[in-house]
Amino acid sequence: MTTPLLEAQGLGYAYPGGITALAELNLTIARGRRLAILGPNGAGKTTLLLHLNGTLRPSAGQVLLDGAATGHSRAALAAWRRRVGLVLQDADDQLFAASVAEDVSFGPLNLGLDEAEAAERVAQALAALGIADLADRPPHMLSYGQKKRVAIAGAVAMRPQVLLLDEPTAGLDHHGAVHLLAALERLEAEGTTLVFTTHDVDLAYAFADDVALFESGQVLAQGPAATLLADAALLQSARLAPPLALTIGLKAQAAGLLAKGQTLPRGNAEILDLVDRLVAAYGASDSRIRPA
């Protein structure tokens, strides 16, 4: 059995006042597979990410990195965060320097790299996110989507093995979300494992390989996105609805319009492609696709 790249075992955590945020939580992150941590607002998803990069210390359980227990000493945290990057939902929480380039260079310089090597990492990270032209701009003069990409570039410049993203598309319009997801795909192609939280089941189904259904500080189930997101009862227990693309695909399959085992649509473009193929195959007069 392959050792998970990152793993949470029996995590427990309560905020001041005794408010339980995590309760005996177990989660595995496999190398090279996109994982969506999917659950309603307030379920504890952000708290989990803050444990996975060492920002918070659990009251119970542990986090393992490549099978080894992590530590919270200064040296251990520095080594941990070199390998596990975190991007918060609100980019303003992570941007503080006078220019984009200075902001992105903070992490590499903090690693002890010389200025030339840090500058090279900054240039590569900005190029990877498609924002090289913003290098000299003050962060406060950027759009919301640009700030998100700068925050991600700051994490990428550390060259982490795992990149944790809290609600990465929240607040973005369609154009901004598409460009951000494309940038994340490029990072994945270069070897970064992506983990993101979301309450958007359609995003999780379209973009993730695996999902972990999250509710009340616990992982209810973890597995392939297409399998778990087809389980209506399980989704209901996590206070979520099935993704639209999967629902349409399963209905088309049940009606005999798609063969068993045939690839189901994952997003809007594939839904439209399915409709076009059905019309071409059966004709607009076919009773199975003609409006009632």
Task: Outline the structure in words.
By secondary structure, this protein is of the alpha/beta class. It has two domains: 6-240, P-loop containing nucleotide triphosphate hydrolases (Rossmann fold), CATH 3.40.50.300; 243-292, no CATH class. Helix content is 39%, strand content 21%. It contains eleven helices and ten strands. The chain has helices at 45-52, 74-83, 100-110, 115-128, 144-156, 174-189, 201-207, 225-228, 232-237, 244-254, 268-282, and strands at residues 6-15, 19-29, 35-38, 60-65, 68-69, 84-87, 162-166, 193-198, 210-215, 218-224. A hairpin with a 2-residue loop joins strand 4 and strand 5. The protein is globular and about 65 Å long. The mean pLDDT is 90.
Brief overview, please?
The chain contains 11 helices and 10 strands.
Jot down its keywords:
292 residues, alpha/beta, 4-stranded antiparallel β-sheet
By secondary-structure content and strand pairing, the structural class works out as: alpha/beta
Q: Span from first to last CA?
A: 52 Å
* Secondary-structure element series: EEEHEEHEHHHEHEHEEHHHH
Unreliable residue stretches: none
Radius of gyration: 21 Å
Q: How many domains would you count in the coordinates?
A: 2
CATH class of the largest domain: Alpha Beta
Q: Count the strands? A: 10
CATH-level-4 superfamily name of the largest domain: P-loop containing nucleotide triphosphate hydrolases
Q: Whole-number average pLDDT?
A: 90
Sheet bearing the most strands, described?
6 strands, mixed
Helix residue percentage: 25-40%
